[in-house]
UniProtKB/TrEMBL annotation:
Keyword DNA-binding annotated: yes
Disordered, as annotated region: 129-159
Record key words, sorted: DNA-binding, Transcription, Transcription regulation
InterPro entries to which the protein is assigned, alphabetical: LysR_HTH_N, LysR_subst-bd, WH-like_DNA-bd_sf, WH_DNA-bd_sf
Organism: Sphaerotilus microaerophilus
HTH lysR-type domain: residues covered: 8-65
Protein name in the entry: LysR family transcriptional regulator
Annotated Low complexity bias: 138-148
Length: 346
């Protein structure tokens, strides 16, 4: 048992994850900065210590055995837990997270997110909290009174590193549930609630159907029927979920589809006349006023989506997450996150 515990090091688990993710020993060796023979030797040592075969040597690719797949799944869970423990220790010591990871759905206005990051990095915080001081509540941590005066020579920007990632639909939830991020902005409530997160409403977004002025549907009688729309290519954004069931909206059975990676890409495709589709009304508004897009009423019921922000439950919030949650409570912030991409011009 002792040898097995010694073999299951974080380095060994990360090695397994890298091999499985890259698909080959050679690619994993390059990423880890090792020669393939050294990586192969490390895998054999791990197999001998556990007395199992982790990879099928008959396959030219790095094909996991059933035992290897189980080790990879549990190993990833252990690595996430190790990171969580390290982050909790850091929060206890300083009150600030080492890293705050935020998943932002593609539907959210990027300029508003960057305004929030600008405000976060402009904060002036007092130096380290004295050892032994009791932790502050989330409200107290985020309040201006807890921050240093701007002219305090010992004040500095928050020590927390922000890690921003763009996701789409179920992919935004998946990043939060899997522990890859601490905060998710722009999610729709799932059918079954997740007991590891808390949610709060962000706002309601009207989705409108738009085409380019030179698109055939621009000359069709209104309101457009579902059959008329189905005869033309629709532009859809790819759900970034890898394990959760991906979502698709507004695509009729058998309809031609152009799949793009983001809302900005969808806007570009529709302006070029490569397809049609629904988009947030604030994003469409400026382009419709400028004549780059035509909004067409549909015979079917208008679509409105309720968006939320969500964060992982924990014993206490670090200062960075508390600050972001305080900003998201403000109506002006929530409105900007839904509407500020009206200023986006391609």
């Amino acid at each position: 048992m002792t040898n097995r515990r010694r073999a299951l090091t974080p380095e060994a688990l990360e090695m397994m994850d890298t091999i499985a993710r890259t698909g080959s020993f050679a690619a994993a060796a390059r990423e880890l900065g090792k020669v393939p023979s050294a990586l192969t030797y490390s895998v054999r040592q791990l197999e001998e210590a556990l007395d199992v075969l982790l990879f099928d040597r008959r396959s030219r690719q790095a094909q996991l055995t059933t035992a290897g797949d189980e080790l990879l799944r549990e190993g990833r869970r252990l690595l996430v837990q190790m990171d969580a423990v390290a982050n909790r220790v850091q929060r206890v010591a300083t009150g600030w997270e080492a890293t705050l990871s935020i998943a932002v759905d593609s539907i959210i206005a990027a300029p508003a997110i960057f305004d929030l990051m600008d405000a976060f990095f402009a904060l002036k915080v007092a130096p380290r909290t004295p050892a032994g001081s009791p932790p502050a509540s989330p409200a107290a941590i985020a309040s201006p009174a807890s921050l240093a005066e701007a002219d305090d020579p010992s004040a500095h920007a928050p020590p927390t590193r922000l890690k921003l990632r763009s996701e789409v639909m179920s992919g935004t939830w998946e990043a939060l549930i899997n522990g890859q991020v601490d905060l998710a902005i722009g999610v729709m409530l799932p059918d079954t609630p997740f007991d590891v997160v808390e949610c709060a409403p962000l706002g309601v977004l009207d989705m409108v159907f738009a085409v380019a002025p030179h698109h055939p549907l621009a000359r069709e009688d209104e309101p457009l029927s579902s059959a008329a729309v189905a005869r033309h290519r629709v532009v859809a954004i790819a759900d970034t979920a890898l394990r959760m069931a991906p979502q698709t909206f507004g695509v009729a059975p058998g309809q031609d589809v152009l799949t793009v990676p983001s809302l900005v890409a969808k806007l570009e495709a529709i302006i070029r006349g490569l397809g049609c589709g629904r988009m947030p009304e604030p994003l469409v508004r400026l382009h419709a006023d400028a004549g780059r897009l035509v909004v067409k009423p549909l015979a079917e019921a208008p679509r409105r989506i309720e968006l939320h922000y969500a964060w992982r439950r924990s014993a206490g919030h670090g200062r960075a997450l508390a600050w972001w949650l305080q900003q998201l409570e403000r109506p002006a912030t929530r409105r900007a996150l839904l509407e500020q991409h009206a200023g986006l011009i391609l």
